[in-house]
């Protein structure tokens, strides 16, 4: 779903003057917990499996950056500025890739340019930051440009290996991936040895979604965990069900499961979690109306909030067809 850290075959230019570790400012025009949240961190597990810098679950195997996810797809159209996290010199950029969600059919081709439209900034002394999945035509800098911290360099898009609106920001030192939350760690997780690279450390929540999917009936937990529950198509006469599989929710968190189709909303259900388990799933849906569902594309949204604060969300798509 998200891109590798490096941009292949992009021209390098003059490097910034040597400096110490960069101090990073928040790189998006969004407010954490309101219009965006951090979904994935650098994978601190050197082997198979994944762990974020706290030894939590909020990473993916081999993930090489921090993913900041926008509240919804509409924010792409509105335009959300991506900003340089620290001063430096633009060492590479790419623009022109379409903002199209990756699919199983397009993954292999898009993988060649998985970061999508992107900017790489050199901060000196071997330090670089990389900004992936920018909106087509939005890149506002060119190789060789000197930028200040907070300067706009593009807009969030849907280019490269992604199907959700987000910024992937990566940090490197001499080509080695560095977790800005625990820069002293390269092959382990746990309590950081010292402060991270952020000027103001973003909030960390261990709660998140493992997956969400659309199904044609209420699935078993085993089917959810194995992926067998997910349906890509449904007959107009079949029920439509959205499920969300999540981890480390807290008592009082609110789970909302909703879905829209060609004629608008088909259901919306919210519930307060009373005694959540470390890992669990919930599902909600509707039987087909008389005459069946209109054919076309349907999208479900699973969302977790805590005291009004956005913690996580996932989407799932299904096509209703009589074929």
UniProtKB/TrEMBL annotation:
Tell me the Gene3D superfamilies matching this sequence. Answer: Glucose Permease (Domain IIA)
GO-annotated molecular function:
metalloendopeptidase activity
Return the Pfam families for the record.
Peptidase_M23 (PF01551)
Ranges where the M23ase beta-sheet core domain occurs: 76-180
Q: Where is the signal peptide?
A: 1-19
Under InterPro entries, the record lists:
Cell_wall_metabolism_enzyme, Dup_hybrid_motif, M23ase_b-sheet_dom
Keyword Ligase set for record: no
Protein keywords = Signal
Which organism encodes this protein?
Roseovarius faecimaris
Keyword Ligase carried by entry: no
The protein's name is M23 family metallopeptidase
């Amino acid at each position: 779903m998200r891109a590798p850290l490096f941009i292949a075959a992009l021209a390098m230019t003059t490097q910034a003057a040597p400096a110490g570790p960069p101090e990073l400012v928040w790189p998006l025009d969004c407010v954490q917990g309101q219009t965006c949240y951090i979904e994935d961190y650098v994978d601190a597990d050197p082997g198979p499996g994944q762990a974020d810098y706290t030894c939590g679950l909020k990473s993916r195997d081999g993930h090489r950056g921090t993913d900041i996810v926008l509240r919804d797809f509409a924010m792409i159209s509105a335009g959300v500025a991506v900003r340089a996290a620290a001063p430096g010199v633009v060492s590479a950029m790419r623009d022109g890739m379409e903002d199209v969600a990756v699919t199983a059919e397009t993954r292999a081709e898009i993988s060649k340019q998985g970061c999508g439209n992107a900017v790489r900034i050199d901060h000196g002394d071997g330090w670089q930051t990389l900004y992936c999945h920018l909106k087509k035509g939005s890149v506002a800098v060119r190789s060789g440009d000197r930028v200040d911290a907070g300067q706009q360099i593009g807009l969030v898009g849907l280019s490269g290996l992604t199907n959700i609106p987000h910024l992937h920001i990566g940090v490197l030192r001499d080509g080695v991936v560095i977790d800005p939350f625990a820069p002293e760690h390269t092959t382990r997780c746990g309590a950081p040895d010292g402060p991270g690279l952020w000027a103001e450390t973003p909030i960390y929540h261990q709660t998140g979604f493992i997956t969400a999917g659309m199904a044609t009936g209420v699935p078993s937990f085993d089917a959810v965990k194995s992926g067998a529950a997910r349906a890509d198509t449904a007959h107009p006469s079949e029920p439509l069900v959205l499920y969300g599989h999540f981890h480390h929710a807290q008592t009082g968190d609110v789970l909302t499961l909703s879905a829209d189709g060609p004629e608008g909303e088909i259901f919306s259900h919210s519930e307060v979690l009373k005694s959540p388990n470390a890992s669990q799933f919930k599902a909600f849906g509707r039987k087909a109306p008389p005459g069946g569902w209109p054919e076309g594309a349907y999208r479900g949204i699973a969302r977790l909030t805590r005291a009004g604060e956005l913690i996580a969300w996932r989407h799932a798509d299904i096509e209703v067809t009589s074929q």
